[in-house]
Amino acid sequence: MSDSDAGSPAEAQLQRLDGALHDQFTWYPVAKKDFKDALRSRGLWALAAIFTVIFISPIAIRLYGQGIGPSPPDGGLDTRFVIEGIYLNLVTVVLPIVTIFVGVAAITKEKTSGSLKLLLSLPFSRRSVIVGKVLGRCAVVAVPFLIAAAITAVFMAASDLSLNIEMYTLFVLFSLLFVVVMVAIAVSISGAVSTTLRSVIVNAIFYIYVTFGWNSIANGVGKFLYNDVGVSRSLRWNTVLFLKMASPTQAYKTLVSSMLASFSDNVQPGLQQFSERWNLSLSQLGPQQYSRYTLFNTQGSLFSPGLPAGDKRVLCESVAGGAYQNITLTANNQTNSVTVTSAEGTQTFQNVGNITANQTQVSQFCTGGGSEIPFYFSDPAVVVFMLGWVALAAGLSYYTFDLVDL
Amino acid sequence: MTAIELYGLRKEYQDVVALDGVDLTVEDGEVFGFLGPNGAGKSTTINILLDFVRPTAGTAEVLGYDAQEDPTAIRERIGVLPEGYDIYERLSAREHLEFVIESKDADDDPMELLERVGLADAIDRRAGGYSKGMKQRLVLAMALVDDPDLLILDEPTTGLDPNGAREMRDLIREESDRGATVFFSSHILSQVEAVCDTVGILQKGQLIAKDTVEGLRSAVRGGMTLWVTLADPAGDVSTVEDTVEGIEGAQITETDGSQVAIGCKSTQKMDILNALNDAGVDVANFETEDQSLEELFTAYTEQEVDT
């Protein structure tokens, strides 16, 4: 086993790291033992296999399974589409189930079997036990996740898909942050209750609420404040976004979509067509502004017309910090010209085609050039929101595990 | 230097008082037997020493540290065999010991420790398949890591066969010879008697006796049981109770139909019989019996000791 004479330099390095971690952190032996225990259970390898299958199969079906599933979008699959259109929803639904599965009995099992008594008769404080458990279980999720992510990357690189390795790596890193948050919550619930069954119940309620209920409740609160309390539109939408950001799932999604948006132009589809048609150079929303603005139904869809203009304006200007522009098209059939008027000036186009009537059309777009995104909705703030959940988990553990009789 | 010092220790759970003001000192190097029937509060006391449970009032000091303020400093220097523990099924005995050795920053050899407890041949087997006795031996080996200054053993002989129980006693002696303090609890007197310097008897949350085994024996030596057979048990039992209550050093230890057992000093026999006569009790017959330490324990704790 781990004898002192290490064979290779890599092994020696690993042992030095092991020693350093041991000297530095009191929780380290707990985390290590927990991870070792999981390695034995084979569950870890099953998890890696499951992750790999659920990562690869949706792309494989789109690429090669013509006729049996959704076909690739126009322009082929790229990394951004795969992450935004497939993985983001997959991860937010599946990963919490995995973290709950891994963390739900972390403490309750030791409580009911009595091995907690052995653990706590060693020089560990209760806090070290919780921290060690959280990090050990994080490793239990993170290692198979990373294995699967690596296999998937190899698959993507070998397939017809264009792999943006930087974008993909950042996505994996944000997902690991999400894992830490969700494991911390699951383990702290496990520490707070007396039996595994109770832990399962509380964790399941939390999961359903956060994954499926949170957004509607945030929107509901906004509607209530606006319709029944009579707050301003600005306060309404700021509150709704704030509540949405407070959900660990939404915070994770937002961070990833900001990241994705930072890789390319972020013009909303309607605006893009418009600017190309009239050769306009409108300034664009920044990646963070874009991801916050498009979080809401500001684009409309096949099934819904989108939010009213008044709400869009507020979302654009006071929530995302953009500029909500009126762009006026005036067609004149005498001069056979079209005049485009925006905040950035007026342009007249001659001989654009057969203009049969004089008409004026006003379109509204959220563009850059406003203020910056408010600091409380910026990416660093969203990271703080996520870490807030870790702090909440720590607080819960302190009052329900550190301070009480076992 | 004292190994354990309890001051006015009290623990209340919702509707029961588990410990009711326990003061106790265990000297350094002592082998201390903590006796009492099940439910007397022995485990609660140990749980407070290990900071699993926080006292309602009073304080507990272990090796000079406050048990509630400095639990990890205490756990660095003690070895524990808790009650109602479980091992990690998927890890081997070696891995269990490596874990403890790493946690305590010790440099013991797992093999040597397992040889001491007689579990060396199962060193690389998964502990999930161990018998109750093997698990007990493994946890004992874990308690011995890093030569602790104090061993706290909660009912260490449960689950062991007579041979195992003897080995446990030998091990306690070895550890005591090395200079360690041993604090162990049991509800079986004979096991305590055989190795302990000092015995404390806990009953219903109160420490009712604390002495050396010798001291307890000599206290017993002058004691006896007086069996009185009543001619009219129905009418007289309560009078007997009242009368005996009024005599210092005497108490009723058992009532069995018409017979009443009275624990007393051998010099008190005639006083009691005279007092009963004066109270108008019709004594049909009486017998005397010398008391053993076992009976003393039973008398103290007034409960069936299940072995």
Q: Any overview of this molecule?
A:
The complex is a heterodimer of chains A (406) and B (307). Among the domains of chain A are: 9-201, no CATH class; 269-296 and 311-373, no CATH class. Chain A has 406 residues and is an alpha+beta fold. Helices cover 65% and strands 8% of the residues of chain A. The model of chain A has no long low-confidence stretch (mean pLDDT 87). In chain A, strands 3-2-1-4 form a 4-stranded antiparallel sheet. Chain A has helices at 9-24, 28-41, 43-64, 79-103, 108-113, 115-120, 126-158, 165-192, 196-229, 233-246, 248-261, 269-278, 287-293, 309-319, 379-402, and strands spanning 323-332, 337-342, 345-350, 359-367. Chain B folds into 2 domains: 2-217, P-loop containing nucleotide triphosphate hydrolases (Rossmann fold); 223-290, Alpha-Beta Plaits. The model of chain B is unreliable at 303-307 (pLDDT under 50). Chain B starts with a strand and ends in a 6-residue tail after the last helix. Chain B has helices at residues 42-49, 71-77, 93-103, 110-117, 132-143, 162-178, 189-195, 213-221, 233-245, 269-278, 293-301; strands at 2-12, 17-27, 31-35, 57-62, 65-66, 78-81, 150-154, 181-186, 198-203, 206-212, 223-230, 251-256, 259-265, 283-290. In chain B, the strands form 3 sheets. Chain B has a 6-stranded mixed sheet, with helices on both faces. In chain B, strand 9 (198-203) and strand 10 (206-212) form a beta hairpin. By secondary structure, chain B is an alpha/beta fold. The A-B interface holds A 1, 22, 26, 29, 32-33, 36-37, 40-41, 113-115, 117-118, 120-125, 403, 405-406 and B 47, 50-54, 71-73, 75-76, 78, 80, 82-88, 90-91, 94-95, 99-100, 102-104, 139, 142-143.
Which characteristics define this entry?
A: 406 residues, 65% helix, elongated, B: 307 residues, Alpha-Beta Plaits, 2 domains, 14 strands, 30% strand
Total domains of chain B: 2
| Poorly predicted regions of chain B | 303-307
User: What is the rounded distance between the termini of chain B?
Assistant: 35 Å
What is the fourth-level CATH superfamily of the largest domain in chain B?
P-loop containing nucleotide triphosphate hydrolases
Instruction: Outline the biggest β-sheet of chain A.
Output: 4 strands, antiparallel
Query: Overall 3D geometry of chain A?
Result: elongated
Strand pairing plus helix content of chain B: what structural class? Answer: alpha/beta
Helix content of chain B: 25-40%
